[in-house]
Structure formats: structure tokens, C-alpha cells
Amino acid sequence: MGASQICFTMSLEKVAGVHRRNAFDHFINLFYWVIRRTDKARSVSKNWSVIRCIDVTVWGKWKMIVQSRRAAIKSLGMSALALAFVKTGLCESAFPGHVNELSSWLNRVQQNAVQLSNREISSLQWQEAIDRIYERTPLTELKELLRFDDLRRHILEKIPANRDELFQTIRLETPNVPHQKNGSEPRRELITKIAHVKKGQSIPPHGHSNMVSAFLCLSGEFEVRQFDRLDDRVEHLVVRSSLHEKSAGPGTWSSISDYRDNVHWLTAKTDDCFLFTCKLLRIEEGKPLQGRINIDLRDAKMLGLNTYQAPKISASRAREIY
Question: What is the pTM of this model?
């Protein structure tokens, strides 16, 4: 085994006593301690510009691999997301047994984002790919990784009485994509969140500009409406209905881009409505980003078959009527 591929495994029980906030740093320090004492590692011990990559094995162990920067970046996808869950406190220091299927799924989600970020694919191609990925979601394993019962309890305790929806960010630590320095959400980087919508309330009808996103139902039942944006006028959006799913339960999904199903409207029908979401912002240079373009479809003018001219409204007005 070459010096650039020295690896070892360690049971997670070894770091079980470390607070989850410090577990990652503790593990990296332990890794350094081991390889500094390994003869074959001495040839690379003076050059720590290499990438550390953590993989999750089927037996619930972490395998630490020192490898070249280029090879490491290609394999960072699932590792970054799995570690983000740990470091944000959304799961404990143990992973489900069915990790092969889940890690493959997480890696496809990340690689799809990387391809869009690198402009290897278009927004529409990202959307088509995420539809195929979400269709094959290992939902039980994903919820186990999220420690979903604990996460749900945390969000229900956190959401204010006067809020109808809450989005909890799960930060992805992707070293190959820089963060925005002004505190805003990062540019062309995969952003993942867990969302809750109270029963009878809605994520109001709204469109987007210069972004892509996808919602995956983790629990509960939603009514989902989507629309293609045909025209964006100063005071109105012209939209055409593309989907109306009256009962969308766990495992169902929806996606948006500037080019298909741009407007969506989700209404919670049960008490336990939670979503896993991912998105990327500022996809196209020189095009303005608009996170939500709220419209009032209840006051829309019908222009033709399933086609409406809906007035734009403020976020506060949207929350008030939806």
C-alpha cells in the first residue's frame, strides 16, 4: 500500500464519549497521531495540502483515507453531507446499517449539484436528474440518518406560534465551492434543509428566478400544485397549471427550475408534514436571483385552459391569505 493511500478503520464507539460537536476534530487529530507514527506516511507528513476524506462503511465504521487532492474532491459528496448531519447535531455518531444504498443516493445528489455548479449540465438537466434521484430515495434509511423523530421534536419545539412554516438548514461543508462572505446563502452550492408546515397552512404559491430546488416528503400528506411560468410581467406572472396532486405522501417529490414547473404551492393536510429540500442559487451569470416571487392565485384572471394571470403580492400578504 502506497504512502498516499494509507488507511485505517476505527469503530465509532471509540469516539462515543466525545461530544458530537467535537467528534470530527477529535477524529482528525487521532488520524494525524496514527499516521505520524506510520513509517510509510513519513514521505507525505510534511505536505498536509492533501484532502482528508471520510467514508462510511457498511459496518458503521469510519475509514480514513489520505489521497490526492483531485481524487479526494471526486469522492467528497456523500462524506460531506453525512458529516454535516453530525456536525449540526441532527444525528448522533452512528449511521444506519443500510449505508451502501444511502451513501450512493447522497453521492448522486451531491454529484448532480457539482455538475450544475461547474456548468457541465443545465438547470433543466439538473431538474430531470434530481427527479430520477428522488424517485429512488431510500426513505427509511434517510430518516434513520436524520434521526427523524428527534429532529421533528426539535423543530416542533422551535417553531414560533405565529409561524406556519419553518426551514431548518443543514450545512454542507464542501471545500471545493466557496461560501459567500456577506452572510447570504452560497453561490452555486448545494443547500439542504428540513422544512415543516403546520396542518391547514401552506407554502404560498410563488415562483423563482435563477435557482433550482426540489422537495421530498418525509412524512405527512400535502396537496401539491405546480405551474409553468409563461411570462413575468411587472405586476403579474402568467402561469399554466402543470401538476395538481391532492394527496402527496412520504416518498413523493416535486422540483422547480426556471424552465419547468417554476411556480409551486404546497398545503399541509396533516399534523406531521415534513420535507427534505435541496437547492442551488445564482445559477446563471448576470441574471437576478429572486428567492420567492409570491403571487395570489385566488385572485388570478383566467386567460385560457389552465392558464392564469396572477398578481404579484408581498411576502406578508402571502402569509396572511395562505
Answer: 0.68
